[in-house]
Amino acid sequence: MSDSGINLDASQEIKITVMQLKIERLEEKQADLRERLKVVEKWVIGAAAVIAAGTTVVGFATNISKAYL
Question: How far apart, in Å, are the Cα atoms of 23 and each of 16, 17, 26, 27, 30?
């Protein structure tokens, strides 16, 4: 009976170790995803700035052309 108790403890220890490794891998994956998200955020902010500038230029051009008509 003491053998099964030892095996159960070893089994639990193995499961804990496996779970710890999974957690470490998930944390690494999460860090990678956060870095990728930062890159995407920079692209989105840049695109928004370009669109805003383009809209402003078109608005000014439209108003200027109306002023000369």
Answer: 10, 10, 5, 6, 10
